[in-house]
Each structure stands twice: as structure tokens, then as C-alpha cells.
């Protein structure tokens, strides 16, 4: 299981009023992977609410309890597309705090069952 990012990274990211594109790509991928709809995953205000959640709803808690069962191949493809052009180094250059979330997404996607990572049409299922 990938390592959960430290709380300090969360605090830094919550303080961003308008994140750089790379940070938004990482969080769109993360939120989609955690089961949120594409529209919500691409909304920074929604992401900030998730970052500010407490208890079991806290984003790090959701990551720790991650269950791939509800994922569809289309949702996974959406996540893969969001992070395809990124690397840990490219994310780190923009935001050290977002790097640990990127690494978690990347490692999580690479450990998914092959039936979820097979090529499938994206748009309709990614809306789920």
C-alpha cells in the first residue's frame, strides 16, 4: 500500500487559493480515484473542502482506507490521463507538498487489477 502523505503537506495545499495546473491535475486524479465525480474532482473549491474534512472523511483517511472495488476502467483511464504527463520531479518543481499525493496516486494506479487498467471508453463512466 502506498505511503500516506504527511499532515504538513495537507496544510500547505489547503492554503492555496488557486493552485498551479500541475497541483490541480494531481488532485483531480486523486479525488477521482477516491470515488468523486469528474466535475467535483476538477473543482478546486470542492478539493479544498475535501482537504479540510475531519475524521473518517479526511482525505488522508480516505486514502488509507482506499478500496478499488467501486472503480470502473473508465475512471481509472481518466486518472491515468490526468497524471500521464507528470513525474514526481515535475510535480516537485511546482509543489513539494503535492508530490507525495502524486506518488500515492501513481503507486495506487500501478497496483490496480489489470481488468481496471485495460483500455476502455472514458467519458461516460468517468462522469460516475
UniProtKB/TrEMBL annotation:
<dbReference type="InterPro" id="IPR026983">
    <property type="entry name" value="DHC"/>
</dbReference>
<protein>
    <submittedName>
        <fullName>Uncharacterized protein LOC101862739</fullName>
    </submittedName>
</protein>
<dbReference type="InterPro" id="IPR024743">
    <property type="entry name" value="Dynein_HC_stalk"/>
</dbReference>
<dbReference type="Pfam" id="PF12777">
    <property type="entry name" value="MT"/>
</dbReference>
<feature type="domain" description="Dynein heavy chain coiled coil stalk">
    <location>
        <begin position="9"/>
        <end position="109"/>
    </location>
</feature>
